[in-house]
Amino acid sequence: MSRLIRIGTRDSQLAMWQAKTVQSQLEQLGHKSVLVPVKSTGDIVLDKPLYELGITGIFTKTLDIAMLNGDIDIAVHSLKDVPTVLPKGIVQAAVLKRGNINDTLVFKKNEEFLSQRDAVIATGSLRRRAQWLNRYPTHTVTDLRGNVNSRLEKLENNDWNAAIFAAAGLGRLGIKPENAINLHWMIPAPAQGAVMVAALEEDEEIRTICAEINHRETEICTSIEREFLNHLEGGCTAPIGAICYINKEEEVNFKGILLSKDGTRKIEVTKVVPLGKHDNLAEFCADYIIGKGGKTLIDQLQRSDKTTNIYSTKTLTEAQLELFHRDVVAESNDAIKISLNRIPKSVVRNEIKNVVITSQNAVEALLTNFSAPELQFKNIYCVGRRTKRMIEKRIGKVAHMASNAKKLAEHLVEFIEGTEVTYFCSDLRLDDLPNILTENHIKVNEVEAYQTKYDAIKVEQNLDGIMFYSPSTIESFLKQNKANGIAFCIGETTANIARKYFEDVRVAKVPTVESVIELVNEYYA
């Protein structure tokens, strides 16, 4: 044909290789073309990791504009850099046969550092960073940007052990480092190793030409990977990996992964379906990831640039984190650690008429030391619905439950059988219950069932509020931090202590973590 196809490309060495490969395949089919190099934002800004730039399609945006302006006919991209949703008017016209999908570790001396506690690995990829730290949590990962050659030079000139590269990039540039291994365990980026050609949707002539160089198997596999990425709402700012291939039995094999930025959390999915029945594969796998806690993880990733405004002195579950108002960025950590004590058998040798249990920790301590049949308790009195539920499920019926220790003591003063109780408590228990009972001539036999150890961390941010679940969580938190913001408390006993330090104290309607979260949400609503 007489039309000259203008091929738009970034002007990096690797991008030029990709464009020349497309040009060669087109010219072998009799189509004339010319290369039109364009510099992208991703090539210009080299002092920040990609995930910090926050631009969708950082390596493709400039070429998209050039094509929409009519300056080029097609654009050639590394498919892993292309946003999963293309700009209006632009379509994927072809995908070349895929190259090496692996990530490669290039190291300076030897591989001994892999078994050592301390090592420094360089990469600008959040996905590679997260997977490396998941496998080697004690290592340090430092940022590395630039083209392949400049990154290799930085590795040589810095005190690093190794750096991670895309195997396809090294191979296409003819670079074969002496010290390098493929990281077969590392899940690549969706569509890694594939070259994509974009064209204008309205240009049917160009699209027909590009279809001649399309590799169908690569198209199927990379489309599944990118659809998986799209369903997870990920991009450069999320550590998401995916790989799909078709085996000799014509089965479509898929593996996907989502991680936290620091690699401490990882959710994986693997699925095999027959070729031709793969239309819903990506959606199924993405939904699986989301159902296993991926939604919470993604929400945290999307809000990671925001400042934490609520701190919980108890580690929250994924289900609990999902309950927060959209404006809440919550951080949680256990402010106290519980150590169960050894309780002498003589304590429970005979039936105990009246037993007082004010926490689930005391229940755990009892059941760690004794079997349920050994616990011959006639009347069990407890604090909290969950403690009651736990006792009745694992020990026996509860005679009375109160919302806090003071109310339980007041009930015992009026209704107790006899004049003596055995109180299974912590070493840091409050005085309310034993004092009230003693003042009313009821003997209290205290058994230290567990120890409460302060283990709060220092919180650097200025917080809107802190969630407290017991007086000891307050004491622990204040050993490391100042009393600023609102104290969201699980009950009155905790609130009474909080009022000594906080001006604004709010109390949950019922003594549950979920109710404290509801209290926080009411503030933001």
From TrEMBL:
Residues 221-273 form the Porphobilinogen deaminase C-terminal domain. The keyword Mitochondrion does not apply. Residues 5-207 form the Porphobilinogen deaminase N-terminal domain. Belongs to the HMBS family. Pathway: Porphyrin-containing compound metabolism; protoporphyrin-IX biosynthesis; coproporphyrinogen-III from 5-aminolevulinate: step 2/4. GO terms for molecular function: hydroxymethylbilane synthase activity; uroporphyrinogen-III synthase activity. Its EC number is 2.5.1.61. This is Hydroxymethylbilane synthase. It comes from Winogradskyella wandonensis. Monomer. CDD domains: HemD, PBP2_PBGD_2. It catalyses: 4 porphobilinogen + H2O = hydroxymethylbilane + 4 NH4(+). Tetrapolymerization of the monopyrrole PBG into the hydroxymethylbilane pre-uroporphyrinogen in several discrete steps. PANTHER family: PORPHOBILINOGEN DEAMINASE.
